[in-house]
Write a structure and sequence with these properties.
Elements: H1 3-56, E1 69-74, E2 81-88, E3 94-106, E4 109-118, H2 120-168, H3 185-234, H4 237-271, E5 279-282, H5 283-293, H6 295-300, E6 304-309, E7 313-316, H7 318-334, E8 341-347, E9 350-355, H8 385-396, E10 399-405, E11 408-414, E12 420-422
Parallel strand pairs: 6-8
Antiparallel strand pairs: 1-4, 2-3, 3-4, 5-7, 7-12, 8-9, 9-11, 10-11
Helix pairs in contact: 1-2, 3-4, 4-8, 5-7, 7-8
């Protein structure tokens, strides 16, 4: 739930509760005041009757009107005080009246007197005031909601702009993030903190890139010397006969280190955007050539290959296309099981490479990370193949993803995310 929505809910609930309690209290108070006014009028009528009897020695003549009703009961005393009752008006509908009851002595006789006044006008006035009050409350709520929505949207705009830019932030992108300037202290502090964090991360990332590139370049010369010396040692029959297995292990280790060095160099070049994407590359031809390249190795392991491609070309780099396709096909073959299967399809710019394996589903969040290998995999690869694929796709604007379905590991590359030339 958004903060704005939660604030509005709490604000509206609190406002409604306050207005309900306040409105009910206002109704009771207003009702009390209006009834007190009627009682004051009735009390004035009582005083007038007392005064009339005192002067004339008799009760005044009864003149009932729609605004006042009087009843004299000779010899029948009444309980004194105020009351609210329903009387029938002219034998028709009942109306609410407020009356005052008192007893008075006239010529030695006790009379019970009831003076009543209708509360219809009072009730209408009360209802009108309550209606106007409720209408004003509703108008205040709606107006406040609209004003809050507009004001809060403007206030929170810098925050959402910051969140949007943080989501779009790419560590390898050369463009720096420029956050919106705001005069709100809290958002300004947030922007300053995020900017400082991004600058620090960017500096660390650039330093790491330089270190990786420099280290890979520096390793080339020692590796070349080691390979040369290894070739010379392998030509010595006496040493080969005595230390053959050890020399073979050293040779394998050097080859792995050489492949790792080449992969790191490639990643550095891709990250530094040292490849120009200005060639028309026929993806179907690249995929077919890579499948042919690995066909002999697949036959040795009795892995069946199903290949179905349709012509498709895209603006790309030929070498990168070969590396991308080669790494995916090599990955499908290397981690396949004996007598397994590989299914390669290219249809309308969507390359899918699926393979069987003894491995369970891989971690989708880690499968493209550098040096990631499943715990059941032998340490024969360097764990950079899929990372290189992901780096190339990010550089060229393609989409790559991994899924696991029907005991098949499936890697898909969508070339349609970039501008195609033909197909």
């Amino acid at each position: 739930m958004k903060l704005f929505t939660r604030y509005n809910r709490l604000n509206i609930m609190a406002t409604v509760m306050v207005f309900m309690v306040g409105g009910f209290t206002f109704y009771l108070l207003l009702h009390y005041i209006l009834v007190q006014q009627v009682d004051s009028t009735l009390q004035s009528e009582q005083q007038e009757i007392y005064q009339y009897v005192k002067i004339h020695g008799d009760l005044p003549e009864i003149l009932n009107t729609k605004d006042q009703h009087e009843v004299y009961s000779k010899g029948v005393p009444v309980p004194e005080g105020y009351g609210t009752v329903n009387y029938k008006s002219n034998g028709h509908e009942k109306k609410l009246y407020r009356d005052i009851r008192f007893n008075i002595d006239v010529k030695g006789e006790t009379y019970g007197v009831i003076v009543s006044k209708p509360l219809r006008k009072t009730q209408l006035l009360l209802n009108l005031i309550i209606f106007v009050t409720l209408a004003m409350i509703a108008l205040i709520l709606v107006t406040g909601l609209l004003i809050n929505r507009r004001i809060l949207n403007n206030i929170w705009r810098p925050f959402y702009d910051t969140v949007r830019q943080v989501k779009q932030y790419n560590l390898s992108a050369p463009d720096a993030v420029t956050l919106q300037t705001t005069d709100i202290e809290e958002f300004a502090l947030l922007n300053d903190s995020i900017t400082a964090m991004m600058d620090s991360v960017q500096q660390d990332y650039q330093a790491l890139k330089k270190f990786t590139g420099h280290a890979a370049h520096e390793m080339q010369t020692p590796l070349a010397v080691i390979r040369t010396r290894m070739d010379m040692l392998m030509q010595q029959e006496n040493l080969l006969n005595e230390y053959g297995p050890g020399i073979a292990e050293i040779e394998q280790a050097v080859q792995r280190l050489s492949r790792l060095n080449q992969s790191l160099l490639l990643l550095t070049k891709v990250e530094n955007r040292q490849f120009a994407l200005n060639e028309e590359v026929q993806i179907d031809e690249v995929v077919e050539s890579k499948c042919v390249e690995f066909a002999e190795m697949m036959q040795e392991r009795k892995i069946s290959l199903s290949l179905s491609v349709t012509p498709f070309s895209v603006r790309f780099h030929r070498q990168l296309a070969e590396i991308l396709a080669g790494n995916l096909v090599n990955n499908a073959m290397r981690y396949n099981k004996h007598s397994g299967a590989i299914v390669v399809t290219l249809d309308n710019g969507l390359l899918t490479i699926a393979n069987t394996s003894n491995l369970p589903a891989l971690e989708q969040e880690q499968v493209f990370q550098r040096f990631y290998r499943h715990s059941d995999v032998k340490a024969e690869g360097n764990g950079l193949g899929l990372s290189i694929v992901k780096q190339i796709c990010d550089f060229a604007g393609f989409m790559v993803n991994y899924t696991y379905s029907d005991d098949m590991h499936i890697f898909c590359v969508n070339f349609n995310a970039s501008t195609t030339i033909g197909g």
